[in-house]
Amino acid sequence: MALNASKPVGKTRDKGSWVTFRPDIRILDCTIRDGGLMNDHRFEESLVRAVYQACIAAGVDYIELGYKGAKRIYSSDQYGAWKHCDEDALRRVVGDDCGKIKTAVMADAERCDYHTDILPKDQSVLDVIRVACYIHQIPIALDMLKDAHDKGYETTLNLMAVSTAHADDLEEALAIIAKSEAETVYLVDSYGSLYSEEIRALCDKYLEYLVVEGKELGFHAHNNSQLAYANTVEAIVCGANRLDATICGLGRGAGNCPMELLIAFLHNPAYKLRPILQCIRDHVEPLRSKMRWGYDTAYMLTGHLNQHPRAAISFYDEGKTDVVALWDELIE
Amino acid sequence: MALNASKPVGKTRDKGSWVTFRPDIRILDCTIRDGGLMNDHRFEESLVRAVYQACIAAGVDYIELGYKGAKRIYSSDQYGAWKHCDEDALRRVVGDDCGKIKTAVMADAERCDYHTDILPKDQSVLDVIRVACYIHQIPIALDMLKDAHDKGYETTLNLMAVSTAHADDLEEALAIIAKSEAETVYLVDSYGSLYSEEIRALCDKYLEYLVVEGKELGFHAHNNSQLAYANTVEAIVCGANRLDATICGLGRGAGNCPMELLIAFLHNPAYKLRPILQCIRDHVEPLRSKMRWGYDTAYMLTGHLNQHPRAAISFYDEGKTDVVALWDELIE
Questions:
Q1: Is residue B159 part of a domain?
Q2: Contact A257, A229 (CB under 8 A)
Q3: Minimum distance, in Å, between the CA of residue A184 and any CA atom of chain B
Q4: Is the same domain home to B267 and B305?
Q5: What is the DSSP-derived secondary structure letter of residue B215?
């Protein structure tokens, strides 16, 4: 560390160095939202409250509690409360802490009845609607952003699976998105398949369109190649100011960028590591007896092949261990 | 991937791109050597043979089987065969496969009776002696390198714990090491505390001294911050051509750069992923019932604080789970 402190290199020279910090960075905890993909969003309310309060104590800027999933698609019998994030469920978590952290939900294009299920902001404890879409869903995503913006929310667009998008399509998409209502556009490594040089090239590409429109770049990682934190750092160095992370990396499949690593790295005195460690000890590590997440060989294989992790998730759900057979299937 | 394949960025443009590979890169498996730090080098011979044969099948260039530890310090009662790597033990592993992969051992400065315990090369199946030292041990390391070189071995110098070295001392050390017998000098992130910008600055510094002397730069990572693989990729981009990795990242504490990730990344058709996956399935994953290694919160804390992982290793050895108490102790 000493070496770099005395001689910062590259883009950090004018953007913060090892001993300083970048005050324009905001972090979002999506432990409950992304982690919910591994248990059909069936977290107990006490756990959600504990994560919510830990994030407040740690100075985290935003917390995402789940999805606004359409009940016509996702029944309440099959999915827990955090798949729908009804206002009364949100209020039970937020309690008297309203306003101490910005609260977000994710709304998936074509899987959210946003006109009816997202209330006007003055009737909700929510602050932010994060619209997630694949590149072919941008028209509907734009309508969702406008709807949420008009209702009074801060909005983000999370463009998923960019590692499979064609370069020309991505350029066109960015040109359109940059003029949308979204305050932040997220580079999303859905399959955990990107490495540092690709992150740098993509961040530069996104920023080319976003900066002129006054929008922020966000980054959301997956850990299939043990690169979730590393790529988040690269995105920071490139200029991303909105960062997703989860406690213990809890998230779909190989999980996400661990909040504890990110907070330790950022050096911003507004962020506190200890409340996150308390939450790890008391709430998140104990989940491992019920849930399995985090880097493992099968996730590495789908990430390497730039595929959705569903084959690897099934592999572990079914208690399989033959990674050679999985590899043979994946490359068949 | 498609984006970067069509438009390689940065230093890879002239050093290999996503769809090509760098033929000058050589990889070394140190599963048994570094992993042995977690079980007093008590691997069964059948396991060592399995890893050895998997590395041959995978096209790995070098394999390191253990230490040449002094028996006056490390008794045979307390340590397994791979702490001493006597010639007869090595020969039982190498068997008829001699010459199919270069075989290495590590010799620690002040902890190896190298004059007597390292045989002349024509009496040994070993090809490479890797001398490991801290920066204050360079004088003895130079004598060890000369001894091994004169006996006919290829040699490397692994300068440990560089994250705690003073910048001026490191400059002086590199100037001396660059003129030693070592064919390769390794940048070693002993505490898993370095991140990409530091790796780039250090690689550039090392190469400044090594290139003019015709020496190669190597890199050896630890995974305390989930950066072992990421930092190895950064070292590659910077020009490191000698890379250490271990199957499933098996190694001391948080472990090392996983061989399976590295081989998948390198795109060199000489390297095969499938034999590594077979070894994972049949030999390395089953070790988890007896050994604990890999990234976990306690290792992250020692890495973040740029400390030796011994406090975290003890924490897990003693079955502790209170990471908050550990944190409070570490920063006391």
A1: yes
A2: yes
A3: 22
A4: no
A5: P
- The total domain count for chain B is 2
Q: What is the distance in angstroms between the Cα of B280 and the nearest Cα belonging to chain A?
A: 8
Do A167 and B201 make contact, defined as CB atoms within 8 angstroms? no
Q: Does A7 touch chain B (CB under 8 A)?
A: yes
Contact B1 A198 (CB under 8 A): yes
Indicate if B120 and B48 belong to the same structural domain: yes
Identify the helix (H) or strand (E) that includes residue A123: none
Give ipTM to 2 decimals: 0.94
| Structural domain of B309 | 297-330
Evaluated on CA atoms A192, A196, A201, A203, the torsion sign reads positive
CA A141 to chain centre: 17
Taking the CB of residue A332, how many other CB atoms lie within 10 A of it? 5
Q: State the pTM of this model.
A: 0.95
Q: Residue A12 pLDDT > 70, yes or no? A: no
Q: How far apart are CA A324 and CA A248, in angstroms?
A: 28
Task: Determine the Cα–Cα distance for residues A307 and A164; give it in Å rounded to an integer.
Answer: 9
Total residues belonging to chain B:
332
What's the whole-number mean pLDDT along residues A200-206? 97
Query: What CATH number should be reported for the domain holding residue B187?
Result: 3.20.20.70
Give the other-Cβ count within 10 Å of A281's Cβ.
Answer: 18
Q: Which of residues 185-204 of A touch B (CB under 8 A)?
A: 193-198, 200-202
Domain presence at residue A326: yes
Report yes or no on A9 lying in a domain.
no
- The token pair at A187 is 């580079």
